[in-house]
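Ticket #4471: structure export looks truncated?
Reporter: QA, pipeline team
Priority: medium

Steps to reproduce: submit the single chain below to the structure queue and open the exported record.
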Amino acid sequence: MAKWCHTLIALASVVPCFGGNPHEPLGQYQPVSNVIELAQIALDVKGITDAAHHHDFTGAKHIYEEGSNSCINATSRRSLKSFVSSATASQHLQGGAYFDSFTNGAGPSGADAILGPGRLPLQPDFWDEFISSALDGTGRFSNKSETSRMVAVKKGILGVITMYVSHLLETSIALATENRTGDGDGAPHVWDAAWALYYGACGEGCLEHCVTQGWCRFSAWEALKKRDGDHARNRTYQRVEGTILASSTVENYFLEGQRATRAATLDVPALIRVRNNIYRMFSVNAIRATLRYSYAMNRGNGLKYNSLNELLHMQAYTYFLAAAGWIEQSAPGSGQHVLQLLDFQQVTGEVPLSLHCDVKATLHRAYEPLGLDAAKIGQDWAIPDTFQCNSLPACPTAPDLPLGLPGYAAHDTETPAGSKLDCTSSSIMPSTSSIMPSTSTTTTSSMDVQAYMCALEAIEIMGAGAGAVNGVYHKVPNRQNAEVGRTALTECELCATWQNGQWQVYVTNSHLWRISGTDPLSYYYDGVGHMMGPPRSGDWDYKTEMNGTKPDPVVLPARMFVPITGQEEACRGATSTDNSNSYYELVAASSLEECQDRCLSQPRHCKGFEFSRGRCEIWTRPEGILSSYKLTGFACLRNDLAPVFSPVDGGKDRACRGATSSDNSASYYKVFKDLTLRDCQSECMDEALCKGIEHSTEYGHSGRCEIWTLSHGIGSSAPVAGYTCMSYKARPLTPPLV
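Actual output as written to the record:
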């Protein structure tokens, strides 16, 4: 089937494209190489943004430093920190035109030299210092609020990306200069990488997380689109004549550069001009954001709410910092002066109302050397038309900007399609419906019997039927004539683990002596749930001798590890922002299973665990894990009570009913066919409204399952042979272990 490609033949015509380009477009830009992983950095930006928004600076720092979604290869991730670390700055960034305009560098010496004489005096790792200090609350952020730190992180990482995009652009130009122009490994590939990093991927569920309708990427490009909405469109979203639509313009410049890197006859000066045009768009975005937020500070709601005022202040500073060096090179002193005016170490409420006009006057001096003017920047529609700044410097009308290459489609590459890499060591998110017994073969002491996962599956594997599942253990003599007391599952527990190819069962007495068996679990229970006792009771006799009394089987309710919501998430205390480091012990673990085992090694203290690629938090908060925060790459599992199925009127040979034995409306339940009792219970556990089940195995109804959702539950039953009726009680929260 033909693909349709935009061409430059006629006006906006399209023709069928029979060439081959297997790479998915990123906006209007279709890469000619595999840059899938670079685009995935946008998902890290989202993860950091989400974490910082909830003041989870530990989670945000982990993603910033370790990476989460963007793979270098099958075993390594790239991180945002690696783009601007001290080592990267000294080994890769220094010498670049954009970077050196920030760090008082000389820049390139040829045709790709920095255009103007201005330079900022920032240290080479200024971005990493800024982000890391905001995450840690140290340095310049030691006296700043969590709101200020949050904004610095969220907007600062967009500046980090912008800086590294500039490095990729300049690397691509260097490769083109050396005639290294292969689509897969030369100038086109690196140019593609720059766009992928700048534009970003739209991950699964992306459209559900749009910041505003149509803005669904957490990327530096999307920031341009937002400011277009403020300055290039009016309050009814109509285009404002004469303004720059920066998000489209920068895309057209990238398209122009892509074609230039692949031209039969290379035009390196043209590539450099494209680079400078892209940097001009970086500057447009910084200028617009700074004007917008410097006006909002200490006015309206900003004046009314201090936290909002601090948010506006940090946005003005951080957005400007992303292009401050390039603005400074164009008009020496302009970038430096605006940074001083916006200095975030000032008390926000004490910044004078003249700030906006002071900033605007300084920036006006940079417009002409940047090839801009006030009309191209536009007026933020949120600023009243009646508001005017007096005595602004003259701002001559600048020539129209180059158009770039709108509509260009690269459709003739031979590079193969790529696919998303999996650079995780193991799956970190278990099934939300599974109950997971430990697979550890570590020998346990008598004090850590609770360390074994106690699961409904274990009971079912025994073939114990309804009697075991609903927790009724009859008084029967075991082979040593020792009585086992009758009790409900809410008071006793079967602890099991898979060891040496079989299920092991453990019960304890009141002194926590362990009584262990060595045979398969099925040996301990018959078909109606009778507890048969250990077939070989040497351990039993030994403990009896030590205690001087016959053991009394007293154990705890069945337990299981369960996710909080079933999504990728980090553990929290009472709320999604409750994350004191006193709640957990931080240990190393190479996999989720190892982290789980570390939790199991502390049965009386561990309330659950959080795992993310080598980082394991053993939660010991007395009240347990009551909330979570959605965070990509993290798993939070709570050590919880297992759900309980209890027999209604004995359960066996009983059909479920409503208020009375004759109350049996079909609206009370959902019917499933060909399910075992265990499958029927699983369906109930997956149904949020489930109050119980009815399962039948006779009279032509073998495998019939009713999931009862009646709001007030199963209130009665009727005698029907071959039926089983059980009520269901979920166990959503974990009480403290005693």
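Status: closed, not a bug. The export was complete when the record was re-opened. Leaving a note from the reviewer for reference: The mean pLDDT is 77.
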